[in-house]
Amino acid sequence: MPRPDLSALGVKYRRIPVMAIGRDVYCDSRIIIRKLEDLFPEGALGASTAEDKAIEKFLEIWNIEAGIFTRASQLIPTSMPLLNDPKFTKDREEFSGRPWSKEHIAENRPEAVAAIRSGFRFLETTLLADGRKWVLKTEKPTLADIEAIWTFDWLNGLKGALPRELISDQKYPKVFAWIARFNDALKIAKAQAPKPATLKGDAAVERILNAPFADKDLGIDLADPLGLQQGAEVEVFPIDSGTQHHDQGRLIGLTEDEVVLSTQAKGTEVRLHFPRTGFRIRAVTGGGQSKL
Ligand SMILES: N[C@@H](CCC(=O)N[C@@H](CS)C(=O)NCC(=O)O)C(=O)O
């Protein structure tokens, strides 16, 4: 923080990643991945059978909602120089809702190590146990690998995060080999992909605000349990982290797994999309009552 480029788009949501396609802005990796899968089916990475889709979804829930990522973030080493900066630790406290003193991090560490070690063990003894290359026994990595691997890969690359006497390639050889394989595959995929252009923030804002909308109109599910009407003024915010940052706007889309707000930036309409899971939608004035 601050996030001037997001502010210029009228976005209060503070987390990364965010994605814009045209004037539609997507907040949270879950909706970003879903949209990319829908919009670019020729490059889709998701499973095709119902059973594999379930594994993929459970791995997403395991990492994001069931606490693996939260536990991983508790393994940030206390030797990190940024932890000496009170501005940084205060910001982290506001973001996460928990203390970020070195003492608190150290005190919490054994429990977090236990949770992450149990995650390594789970992967080693179930999904990867038979020696398969990829989680869904495919030739190439799929979305299920991505959903499963990202926190473990992040911790593996973060010096001092994992206690190597407890969590190593000796103890969990299949998991560490999979992480290495994934990084090799990623390197090859990146080398083959078109080179992304890099824009300065103000140029990106300009381009987004001058673009058409890219997404379809979702409409409002009138049977939705929140009982909200089209055009209701609502606020949307995450309930797991970054919870103080509320986006407000007119409700223009509400389905089982997506909420869309119409907001303004520099007099131009921008549409903000969020997943339903992990977010609260609250009526601000009129137009329906949120029951939360
Ligand atoms: N459920 C969200 C979680 C996003 C998240 O926690 N992002 C972290 C970084 S991994 C973040 O933006 N933290 C705020 C910050 O560092 O300022 C998602 O999947 O996109």
UniProtKB/TrEMBL annotation:
Organism encoding this protein: Cladophialophora psammophila CBS 110553
PROSITE patterns: GST_CTER (PS50405)
Protein name: GST C-terminal domain-containing protein
Top-rank lineage group of the source organism: Eukaryota
Segments forming a coiled coil: none
InterPro entries, per the entry: DUF7962, Glutathione-S-Trfase_C-like, Glutathione-S-Trfase_C_sf
Domain named GST C-terminal: residues: 51-213
